[in-house]
Amino acid sequence: MKVGIVGAGVAGLAAARVLREAGHEVAIFEGRDEVGGQVVTFPVGGEELECFYHHIFTSDTTVIRYIEELGLGPYLRWIEPRNAHFVRGRMYPFVTPLDLLRFTAIPLASRIRLGLAALWLRRRADGVQRYEGITAREWMLRAVGQKAFDAFWGPLLKGKFADQADQVGMVWLWNKIHLRFASRKGGSSKEVLGYLEGSFKRYYRALADRLEAQGVTIRLETPVEQVAVEAGRVAGLRAGGAFHACDAILLTVPNVIALRIAPDLPPDYRATLQRVRYQWATCLVLALDRPLTPYYWLSIGDDLPFVACIEHTNFMPPERYGGNHLVYLSNYTAPDHPVLRMDADEVFEHYLDGIRKLNPAFDRAWVREKWFFKDPGGQPVITTHYSRSIPDMRTGIDGLYLSNTSQVYPEDRGQNYSLLLGEKVARLMHEDALQTARSRGAGI
Ligand SMILES: Cc1cc2nc3c(=O)[nH]c(=O)nc-3n(C[C@H](O)[C@H](O)[C@H](O)COP(=O)(O)OP(=O)(O)OC[C@H]3O[C@@H](n4cnc5c(N)ncnc54)[C@H](O)[C@@H]3O)c2cc1C
């Protein structure tokens, strides 16, 4: 089978690997000038850094498997991060269970409810069945009360999902808490997070190199313009001004792009894709001459124009990055948000008061460099009864398949699940090809 894969993110690469190993001829078409998709990196101080903050949990066993199979295990570091929550103008550390008791922004009774709710959710393995029909807001309000909700979960949901926050299903939040509590090592009460020295680019670049050595073609800077369908079956795709005949095509792009480049998708399938809403992800990255905060992950409970401040060099040492202190100011926005039309300087000016709230001594002279990154498929909005909204991998057009983050459920989108989806869809494509060959009485 001649397979065209649209997108060289981790799902596209994982699918290519399985399909190639099954003996198919595989070509990947990627719009950008490098593989990696949302795990894309840029150079800073002689080292690669993700444009969007990235770490892994101990439960991300598929990413770990890829890293080890590619011989990169020695570069994987497991680190206890220093996390905190910023609310009412103060940073409250959130590392050990005791920190919750010291969270004096809310009364003691609210703190206890906050802690008990987290413990309860951590122990629930059946969250999908239990929580499919209830929103995170409803469940949390009931469990922790208004004060704790307003100081903690409310702003976090709002920050991540903006005007969609009240629609987010409890399954999404349950799984997030469940997985984060599970990311421990050796019975420790502290969370550990994994990071690949030299950035995650190390493993997906190594994977791309291995795929090319095995005969997979990777065409960079070749955006797919349109998928061609003839008599209800995939015929090929048009990319970079040329036509490429294919027996099967896999789309790994977000739904909005799939809808645009595959105009022949059946109406029911189009409707399913359209139902899933996405928030754009944005990150303003600052290279500073000194630290901004003492924390790696600082979630924001106050009304600031960003939802998290992730200080990468409080996780990996600044010396790796030419002495730069690297800070992500992360936000998620609706597709029509004005910040999406700004450049890095404008976003910085827009965020400046907020940055000073985190560190009143902050001076713009601390900034050596700044970058602004955005992605339209940043975060699918996981609503109640989301299991009914998940698009099928088979699109309804013979030979045309889809694998993207809108199919990750009940977990939150992450490299681990994109790799698994890529592998799963590739096996499905192979089985379908075998089936077709059998029915035609031919080989593939
Ligand atoms: C802000 C942010 C933070 C994250 N943090 C983490 C984290 O800490 N840990 C973690 O594990 N995961 C994290 N993730 C999630 C992780 O990055 C994704 O789950 C994963 O990268 C998605 O991979 P994918 O291959 O499904 O999609 P994508 O990475 O979106 O790949 C799709 C590819 O298609 C390409 N493309 C688009 N249109 C076309 C076209 N017309 N023709 C050809 N190519 C096209 C794109 O350029 C892209 O390369 C984060 C994501 C974001 C946005």
Your description of this structure?
- Helix 4 packs across helix 6 (136-161), helix 4 packs across helix 7 and helix 6 (136-161) packs across helix 7 (170-182).
- It contains 12 helices and 19 strands.
- Helices cover 35% and strands 24% of the residues.
- It folds into 3 domains: 2-54 and 200-277 and 383-440, FAD/NAD(P)-binding domain; 86-189, Guanine Nucleotide Dissociation Inhibitor, domain 1 (Orthogonal Bundle), CATH 1.10.405; 279-380, Polyamine Oxidase, Chain A, domain 2.
- It is an alpha/beta fold.
- The chain has a 7-stranded mixed sheet, sandwiched between helices. A 5-stranded parallel sheet has the order 9-2-1-13-19.
- It is globular and about 70 Å long.
- Flavin-adenine dinucleotide (FAD) is lined by residues 6-12, 29-32, 37-39, 52-56, 223-224, 252-253, 257, 261, 281, 375, 377-378, 404-405, 413-416, 418.
- Flavin-adenine dinucleotide is lined by residues 6-12, 29-32, 37-39, 52-56, 223-224, 252-253, 257, 261, 281, 375, 377-378, 404-405, 413-416, 418.
Strand and helix map with partners:
Blueprint: E1 2-6, H1 10-21, E2 25-29, E3 41-44, E4 47-50, H2 61-69, E5 76-79, E6 83-87, E7 90-93, H3 97-101, H4 108-123, H5 127-131, H6 136-161, H7 170-182, E8 193-196, H8 201-213, E9 217-219, E10 224-230, E11 233-239, E12 242-245, E13 248-251, H9 255-261, H10 267-275, E14 278-288, E15 297-300, E16 308-311, E17 325-333, H11 344-358, E18 367-380, E19 400-402, H12 415-440
Parallel strand pairs: 1-2, 1-13, 2-9, 6-15, 13-19
Antiparallel strand pairs: 3-4, 5-8, 6-7, 10-11, 11-12, 14-17, 14-18, 15-16, 16-17
Helix pairs in contact: 1-8, 1-12, 4-6, 4-7, 6-7
Bound molecules: flavin-adenine dinucleotide (FAD).
Flavin-adenine dinucleotide binds at residues 6-12, 29-32, 37-39, 52-56, 223-224, 252-253, 257, 261, 281, 375, 377-378, 404-405, 413-416, 418.
